[in-house]
Amino acid sequence: MNGGEYDNGQGAGQIGPILEKRRLEKGLSLKEVEQATKIRTRYLEGLEREDPTVLPDPVYARGFLKTYANFLGLDGESLSRELRDRRAPRRERQLSHEVPGTSDFDQPLITPGGVDGAERRRISGATVLTIALAVLVLAAVIGALYYVGSRSVGSGANDSEEPAVEREPDPAPSQKEEPAAEMTTGGGASDGAGKADDGDDAPETAPVTVRVAGAPAGLTISVDGAVALDQFAQPGFSQTFEAQNSVTVSTANAGAVEVEVDGQSVGRLGRYGQGATREFPVQPGG
């Protein structure tokens, strides 16, 4: 049996029996599975019975399912997606069943057709008046800005008019070429400094290292708000991410996940079998 056999055309309610059947085929008890996966027995029973009242939040429940299924040799990723896609239609069906039916007592005694027409005409007139007032206010603001801008341009032109000063011709034109050469040299240096400044505009980042030790764990890691990793990691897993603002780590087995931010260890995310989501802000260049 593989992970794809759960889709047998019988609809919802097949994930739990698949897990229980595979566990019994391997001759394992729930206690033995708990010791191996670090998932509490009540969560394992909730997955096999498909009882949402026992399971934690959906993101943690999918992580537990992926870990449990992979431990049994099933396709944990496919089963996790099936659980996620299955829950939304259930809620929609439940809401549709809860909508109360209408009866003859809910119908109005008088058809308010004339009232609706008068109300629409009154609302239409108010809307037209509001638009007209808005256009007038906008025109007045534009006119005031144009008036102030034209006066500012006129005053600036008057201030810039200065009497021309006659200059005597320079008897030694060769002496003027040397400052020009110096200005060219200075300009080249400034261009080099500008290029150097452009090189310093590259964004700075800080390293965040995530490791898995002691037991397997499902990981979802986001760097600066974008998902960078989503997989089931085995003990010995280690990967470093470069971030400008923050790194968020989500797992269903917090006791097996260690995090190191900019070379400093922050320890494990929690206890074995416990779901956790933590955000680690970084300070590049700090």
Automatic annotation (TrEMBL):
Basic and acidic residues bias spans: 83-96, 164-179
GO molecular function, one term: DNA binding
Coiled-coil spans in chain: none
All residue ranges annotated as the Cytoskeleton protein RodZ-like C-terminal domain in the record: 221-278
Presence of the UniProt keyword Transmembrane in the record: yes
Keyword check for Cytoplasm: no
Signal peptide: none
TM region positions: 128-148
Name recorded for this polypeptide: Transcriptional regulator
